[in-house]
C-alpha cells in the first residue's frame, strides 16, 4: 500500500476552526482544568462548554429551528440537484443549520440560476467563485 496510494477525493473536514479571545484569568482557569486532568486540552474544554450551553438551551434552539424552517445537519447540493431544479423552473431557498456544501463542479452561472437565497448558520463550503456569485443572496 505504500507510495502508490492516492486520495481520489479529499475528505471534507468534520469541524470548522474558530478563534476566540479569552481574558488571561479565564485562560488560566482553562489551563488549570487541563493540567488537573479534567480535559485533555483547551479545545476539549471549549467544545464541552459549548455543548453544555447548547444542551441548556435545547428547547429554544429546537423551537427556533422549526420556526425558521432550517435543515438541520449536513446538506449537500450537487450539480445534478441544481440542474434538476433549473429544468423544473424552480429556485432553491437554502436554509441550513450545520454544514451546507455546494459541489465543486457547480458553476457560478448554475448557482445564480437556481439558488434564490442562502442562509447558513454554521458553515458554507463552496468554491470562491460560487460564493462570490451568491454574495448578494447570502444572509
UniProtKB/TrEMBL annotation:
CDD domains (UniProt xref): RHH_NikR_HicB-like (cd22231)
Any single Pfam family the record assigns to this protein: RHH_8
Organism: Bradyrhizobium yuanmingense
Name of the protein in its database record: Arc/MetJ-type ribon-helix-helix transcriptional regulator
InterPro entries: Arc_rbn_hlx_hlx, RHH_8, Ribbon_hlx_hlx
